[in-house]
């Protein structure tokens, strides 16, 4: 069935399996969500391999309270998902991965952003029309205190608006789209661009 016609949870489960085959969420890391309405999203339950996850491993979270139905445990980083949904009413899906490229690039880059410029593949990101434009992907220092991290992300967004995603240093990428299909395209595009950026820096350092 074309992804546009799939129910949101089916599309998200398929995205998780695809991410698993890519190796972007090793050892049960990462978390994925899809918006159900203005009030709720579905998010991965903690501790499941994304490559073999199924529909019963998703929890319904209230976007305002962060509470989960049935007392089950959501992913530790649920607060970052609910933040992004509250900042962007048009966001329909969020993918958070722990890839090698996102992890390494966010450590190699010492400033507070990766700036992507000069790549044709920037056009994989919604609204980008030219390799001559600059795409800013902010980097936030990692923290186990998710409310504090979410507050830093929100403060930064107030001055430099987030667009497609952000990196958490030494940790991974959060990216999103208006639906699962667009979030997947943004994830694949950003992963490609991160790999280019790492290879370029390696060659330039020689
Ligand atoms: Zn994570």
TrEMBL record:
One GO CC term on file: cytoplasm
Cofactor(s) it depends on: Zn(2+)
SUPFAM superfamilies: AraD/HMP-PK domain-like
Cofactor note: Binds 1 zinc ion per subunit.
Classification via Gene3D superfamilies: Class II aldolase/adducin N-terminal domain (3.40.225.10)
EC top class, as a word: lyase
Reaction(s) catalysed (UniProt annotation): 5-(methylsulfanyl)-D-ribulose 1-phosphate = 5-methylsulfanyl-2,3-dioxopentyl phosphate + H2O
GO biological process: L-methionine salvage from methylthioadenosine; monosaccharide metabolic process
Signal peptide limits: none
Pathway: Amino-acid biosynthesis; L-methionine biosynthesis via salvage pathway; L-methionine from S-methyl-5-thio-alpha-D-ribose 1-phosphate: step 2/6
Enzyme Commission number(s) from the entry: 4.2.1.109
Record key words, sorted: Amino-acid biosynthesis, Lyase, Metal-binding, Methionine biosynthesis, Zinc
Domain Class II aldolase/adducin N-terminal: 10-198
Binding site for Zn(2+): 96, 98
Keyword Signal: no
This protein's record includes keyword Zinc: yes
Gene Ontology MF term list: methylthioribulose 1-phosphate dehydratase activity; zinc ion binding
PANTHER family the UniProt entry points to: METHYLTHIORIBULOSE-1-PHOSPHATE DEHYDRATASE
Function: Catalyzes the dehydration of methylthioribulose-1-phosphate (MTRu-1-P) into 2,3-diketo-5-methylthiopentyl-1-phosphate (DK-MTP-1-P).
Similarity comment: Belongs to the aldolase class II family. MtnB subfamily.
Protein name: Methylthioribulose-1-phosphate dehydratase
Organism: Biostraticola tofi
